[in-house]
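Recall the central idea of this unit: under ordinary conditions, the amino acid sequence of a chain determines the structure it adopts. In this exercise we apply that idea directly, starting from the sequence alone.
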Amino acid sequence: MNKFYRILLDAQNNDVWFIHGPFDQNGNLVNSELFTTCRIYSDITSELSYRIDEGGAPTNFTYASFHVPVIDERICDVLLGCDSRDIQLIPVKIEDERETRHWILNVIRKVQCLDEQNSTIMWWKPEDGRPDKVGQYRMVSKIKLERNRIGNRHIFRLDGWEVALIISNQLKRKLELNGISGVLFEEME
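Accordingly, the structure predicted from this sequence is:
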């Protein structure tokens, strides 16, 4: 049985950068939901950039503001060599970073595979004051997957809880072999 992992930011290392954005070429903040809701980003002609909010060591992987994954060329190469049908790589510039190229990792595949019976889920209720979200996931703190619904995917988001970025064991091993920094892998049940 194939294992799956959630990609988390390595918060144990306090000396890493935090980037804010993305910004368009006019300096306007771009809606981050365009890169976290499994949609193809269509405005690829506009150059996007990030600003460094907190200095520190750059990492191969980071979650920028609002949980947008930003990767460098080391991870980009691994992803393109493994499975690129479910991702879109959007080039970005990061202020003061001239030596390394970066991309927003836009995962465009979501899979309806959350085992709702065995996961710990908080649901939006009418009394929460958000009628547009009633019946949707408000928080998922313990994720269990229905593996028979995943197929042969190597990277995806959970349908209904897109904040979770999930990868296969095969992709995890390739990332580890390349010595990437900035991530922790939480095994999914």
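Residues 4-114+138-187 form one domain.
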